[in-house]
Amino acid sequence: MPVGIFRVCLLVITAIVNHPLFFPKENGTVPENTEEIIQKMKEREETLRLEQLRLEQEIADQEATQKALEKAALVVEESKEEKVRWDMWTALSMVIFLLIELWRQDFQEGNWQDVGGEEDDMAVLGKAFKGVTFPNKAVLASFYEKRILGTTGDMARMREMVEGFADDLLEALRSVCNRDADMEVEDCMGVGSMYENWRVRKPFVCDLIVPFAPPEPYCFRCQTWCSGDSFPPDEQGYGTIKVCRADEDVTGCICDKTKLGEDMLCLLHSQVNTTRPSSEMEDLLCFKNTQYLDADQVMKWFQIAVTKAWNRISHKYEFDLSFSLLDSPGALKIKFKSGKSIAFNLTPVVQYENSDVYFVSHFPRSSLAADVPSSTHWFLTFAVYERRFIHLVSKTLPANACHVSCLQILSFLHGKQCSLTGPSGLTNYHLKTVMLHLLQARPSQDWAPEKLEARLQDMLKFLEKCLHEKKLYHFFIGNGKVPAELGFPIIFQRAEPLNLFRPFVLRRDLYRKTVDTFHEMLRNMSALISEYTVHIPLAHTNGIRKESL
């Protein structure tokens, strides 16, 4: 009990002592501390506000940067889409351009010959025909009868004489050759202007080709520029000839195309067949250390063989035989005791597969012809098909058609002009190619004899157009309209057209000389023809001209 009363008294005393009303001075600093706290809180609030503003500014900057990046990405995407659209348009434009170019070339190949008879050709040809007076029908007929017809009989007699002698010479050549080791020579064939009856310039020269083949068991494997492998532009029109064994499959095994290791052998071919001494291949007239037939080796072999053959039969003839050109294997000349001479070409050739296309060892050179790439490259000639095509078309033409007459007159004019001003890039083969194109392009009735004047103008206009464009395509190569009756190899019909005037693009001096010679020939045409024409009364000439109108 006393303890409890003591605790209550102690509690009352403690409460009284700690009451704030009894100690007012000690608690006087409380208001001052409150203001300081409030001031600090305001400062803290201001700091927080500034920090908030800074953070808001940073957020705004980030948002602006993000928008700029998004905008830039959008621009890039739009530019990519625009570029893709532009690339698509560019590609589409290129495709359209190529299609137009292909159509233009096809149109040119198929239809450019047809414009030869149109009246507006004079505007296309420029100044070439301005002031040119074409001989009328009567003058041309008189010129043709006086100057050209008289040579037909001479050509026939010369062909008969040369062919008989060539057959005898080749028979002697076979007898002097070793049939087990030398090349086998076949019968000769006549080609060119003498056998197509349009040669007019003297001296007359017969062109004979002589196919030859290797001895057994060898054979020739021919490859042309259009066989599939890529050939440079200067090798178009050429091919190579590989000498192989008849039982050798050069297309089915790659052992001759790939270098096998020393410890590897081909299971299809024994080492005896694949490895041949170089002397054996040289005996087969191949280029050194190769299997490809060498034109120079063929030339030497043929000249030696012809010399031996002539020595065997020379006692039967009363004339001499010699080589007229050292760089041509069969350019021969017969010299009679009277001083007269006859020239002819006996050229060795290789048959392409089973066709009448032939590889020519040496071709008559012209100023327009490019240098042969190498002695293993052989030029292809389509002369047999050209002769056959002219004969085939002649059957469908009117009697006494004027196609050969046009070619003869044009050949005469060009030859006369070249004798006055010097040779040009044009050859008689170019002139014949022009005639072949026009024969295919024009209807048969357009070649009636009374239309000689019009067709001659067509040929001149066509030739002028070709010279202007520097394009004269080979008649057979790339021509899909060759008559099926000829049996022409399809590989050459599907090949790219061969431009015979391509050298004009590379040799501007020769091109300018050729064009100048052609224009000079046009200006001198009337004078050149009148020189060989019998005088015709003016009234008769006018009467014929009225008939033609």
UniProtKB/TrEMBL annotation:
| Domain Mab-21-like HhH/H2TH-like intervals | 404-477
Q: Where would one find the signal peptide in this protein?
A: 1-20
Coiled coil segments of this chain: 38-72
What is the membrane topology noted in the UniProt record heading this document? Answer: Single-pass type I membrane protein
* GO CC annotation: nuclear outer membrane; plasma membrane
Q: Where would you find this protein in the cell?
A: Cell membrane; Nucleus outer membrane
Chief location of this protein?
membrane
Q: What is this protein called?
A: Inositol 1,4,5-trisphosphate receptor-interacting protein
